[in-house]
Amino acid sequence: MALALVLNSGSSSIKFQLVNPENHATDEPFASGLVEQIGEPIGRIVLKVEGEKHVLEAPIPDHSAGLKLAFDLMDQHNCGPSQVDIVAVGHRVVHGGILFSAPELITDEIVEMIRDLIPLAPLHNPANIDGIEVARKILPDVPHVAVFDTGFFHSLPPAAALYAINSEVAAEYGVRRYGFHGTSHEYVSQRTAEILEKPAIDLNIITCHLGNGASMAAVEGGRAVDTSMGMTPLAGLVMGTRTGDIDPGVVFHLARNAGMSIDEIDNLMNKKSGVKGLSGVNDFRELRQMIDEGDQDAWSAYNVYIHQLRRYLGSYMIALGRVDVIVFTAGVGENAQFVREDALAGLEMYGIKVDPERNALPNEGPRLISTDDSKIKVYVIPTNEELAIARYAVKFAKA
Ligand code: ADP
After folding, report:
1. 97 in a labelled binding site
2. Global pTM?
3. What CATH homologous superfamily does 197-385 map to?
4. DSSP conformational letter for 23
5. Is 116 noted as a catalytic residue in this protein?
6. What angle do CA 328, 333, 336 make, to 5 degrees?
């Protein structure tokens, strides 16, 4: 079986999967794992294969050591590079700036281009480059492919991409909307066209990727024309721990009056805000339980979340003019039926009617949740970014 190795390298972790590109989105990967606490005194590697979990604890000084130890652990459990047929490696790269609109076969030159984009993603792109360099050394004979989180949004028209900030400053520092989660928005919008058996060019779709990070996109005829995340993944919807849109004046206020440094404000807005900042939890199962038990903060956090989602929904309906399909995906979008119900409640006059029974179906694959007479169809389509990256990667193996 030809497999793709998919790597998602963070600043102190590496997520990896061995994926059969022929899988469905809800299939388990052949193997998956996580290297974490890189750089700390004791690191940890978890490998899941054939329903079993294997854990290794050891010092992991850097990404190179982490990936080598992960390969050793895979070898011990018969899924190492010498035992399975890895035909390509797909690397998730967070920021492609305005340079990359599509996945690229990685060469030394491409690595340098990704390096040039570090100022736009100072935490993510260096880790992505580490992962690429180490993996190219360990697996030198297969194609390595960079798949950019921003790529699908390269097509944003200037009206959606530009911020109303001084244009010289914007040009010098790359200040504009790039958008993220592109692999997921592209994947579910393409799946929608396949399911409806219509060419993508004939469909206008609003995609809602609601996971711990969350974003929405307006997709017109297969092309992204707007999205809620911005120059960074902090903008847009309320998220698990991120603020989403907030008055930029708040940053100045906190810096001037709370004595907070820029790094402290960054940490506050990315890690201690969003649903968690308002309620104390960021998992929607816990949030739901707290609401059911009468917790007022949980209720208020939920309402802020839904209100913001509906704001974006309204603006994308106007931006697109005609909407054929609304798609929900990712952890919350696929599983939290109450979020879908509340996000679309009372919109019958706009042609949106959710069927409560269809909306309550378990998350076992793509499904229609609107009524037969709903003018706009509403679907839940499970996403799988690793599978999408694996498919891009193996295309280069075949070429
Ligand atoms: P990430 O952005 O980390 O990839 P996911 O797309 O995996 O996130 O989504 C994770 C989130 O999905 C969890 O934090 C939780 O809020 C939500 N979630 C997962 N399963 C359920 C469920 N059964 N019901 C409600 N929410 C769920």
Report:
1. no
2. 0.95
3. ATPase, nucleotide binding domain (3.30.420.40)
4. -
5. no
6. 135
